[in-house]
Write a structure and sequence with these properties.
2 domains, alpha/beta, globular, 14 helices, homodimer, Peroxisomal Thiolase, Chain A, domain 1
Chain lengths: 389, 389
Amino acid sequence: MREVAIVGIGTTKFGELWDKSFRDGFAEAGVKAIMDARVRGEDIDALYIGNMSAGRFIEQEHIGALVVDCAGLAGLNIPATRVEAACASGALALRQAYLAVASGCHDIVVVAGVEKMTDVAQEKIEDLLASVIDREWEGFVGATLSSLYAMIARLHMHRYGTTREQIAQVAVKNHANAAKNPDAQFRRKITIEDVLGSPLVADPLRVLDCSSIADGASALILAPYEIAKKYTDTPIHITASVQKSSTIALHDRKDITTIDSTVAAAKEAYEVAGVRPEKIDFAEVHDSYTITEILAIEDLGFCKKGEGGKFTEDGKTAIDGDIPVNPSGGLKGCGHPLGATGVRQACEIVQQLRGRAGERQIKDAKIGLAHSIGGTGGTSIIHIFERRD
Amino acid sequence: MREVAIVGIGTTKFGELWDKSFRDGFAEAGVKAIMDARVRGEDIDALYIGNMSAGRFIEQEHIGALVVDCAGLAGLNIPATRVEAACASGALALRQAYLAVASGCHDIVVVAGVEKMTDVAQEKIEDLLASVIDREWEGFVGATLSSLYAMIARLHMHRYGTTREQIAQVAVKNHANAAKNPDAQFRRKITIEDVLGSPLVADPLRVLDCSSIADGASALILAPYEIAKKYTDTPIHITASVQKSSTIALHDRKDITTIDSTVAAAKEAYEVAGVRPEKIDFAEVHDSYTITEILAIEDLGFCKKGEGGKFTEDGKTAIDGDIPVNPSGGLKGCGHPLGATGVRQACEIVQQLRGRAGERQIKDAKIGLAHSIGGTGGTSIIHIFERRD
């Protein structure tokens, strides 16, 4: 398998983009990435796109072919592949593209993640989110994605003494980071009181514990590491790309406060990249809910199981902490257009490793980790990135 | 890249399977394939699944994780990836799995295609089918998938003198073949008069020119060729796996009677496999409509452009013809559960190359080709299979 690098990135703002269609979003992010990488259209060998909602929200499937056509590249006849793994669809597109380059099958590959979610009725959104969990055994009996995470939060609080305030601190931190990110949906600081005073969604989780649905698109250009310098002075090496699955329904898990697929993916990713959790300089993790970030930092080994609340409260995951988590603002601060999120995480890590993350720059960042999960963790995907020069 | 073989196959009957859920379908096909390949659950390294309709028809996304869980394999934490390219979703799953094995990334990989389509209201089906074409530029102004193919048929008749009867012969042939296939949805012979007397869908295409929506599931087990003999006495070699895209909307094409993505994919597939069209012993091609098969046999090089109607009328594509096409009955005779179709085509080719296709066995079959397209040809995927012993 060949070594793979990211040579270009591009992203739209995330949010309620009333003036941008699905196609506009893809085009903007794609053109930015192509210009960033200084590749030409005819250099592109393949495209992978992560998306979940297009079929229901814009009544369009077959979006692999669609976006290649939109980009004016139909004449190239390149393979264009849409993948979906719920909220991890973007990270899945990155992984499939990584495999295509690593295998020697393709050289220059575009990865895109796109969603257009804010132009539809509320009940369609609730329906969509319920389809990422086990619809027959969870959804149809009344469970929602939020209520399942609420149960996880309750057990975490009960078993480990995690406090409501510690959980809220995830949102406070991520909003503070998002305030420094021009592409984020929510660029304003909030307080613990704001979180605890926001409307209840599923006890104990409140509105400000939840990431938002959003419109947005992000794109990456991948290339074999040996030719990456042709396109950029600062290629970012992908040193691990690992995807794992686990039970989709909570009732089949031994312990709902642990995401098995994340634990398994982290173990393999650290082995493949030859690093330990202590060597990771910062991470973009899946904070679909505040409690999701607490689980993530535990399951990724940044702190021990049960200590994620305290770890967060102590500022260890703050942008100036021991292991900054979600310097971009995360799903909470940036907004969470499902298929775009995993790709945006990679864009943020590349910006940080290039030293071009502006106000939110992490000092001396060399190794970053991206973590994305589908639903309540039926799928976990982890990438590790390194700047070597 | 390593050589890849199919070591196991399994399929459900296709049709209106009122007593089988989506999960049941996957389980039946998957268990058959696993038993056929004599692999154990713990040997499986990854799974790829092709599906298009689950989000809308059973309100379930994230089906990669779902089916691994259903199969009792969640404890293995294997990567499970759902792909979608409209009607070519099953062939796309096969191609992604092929790449995973060829690259050395995984050894034993399950490919599945599953749809549950007959339990929903008619308008939901029409909506789904309109989402495989360019929804903004074709669908929203009133075009349907059937009406676009009707325009293609009209131009083919006008330009090349193709007759209505020649086009109908595709359905007659494929129904005759399906009558010999115990897994097919329509196991009865029809006549040209039946086709021409069936209700009009989009002039000149009639009900019996159209493949049906259906429930169904098919599965394959792939392995590196060098270890395939461990699992089966008759491994079937995949000698080419090629995916191409083209314009999604008809109005952007130079010639709507040619599917550019098929022409490009065929050219590359023949090169990679080291064969010419004349060396192909039989093919399973995408006959979503009768006219689609006419285009396919021309674009694949089995006959010249414009001669597909005559070629079919002369019996060249019959099961005892020069190049049998759709010995299984094709999409027309078997039914067309979108994501399952491309996988079922591969199952049929393996059965034929093993010499176990029963009444529909093609004599001395050594090399078979599978051709699958999405929508009106925005995506084309071609696989070539060979039995070498």
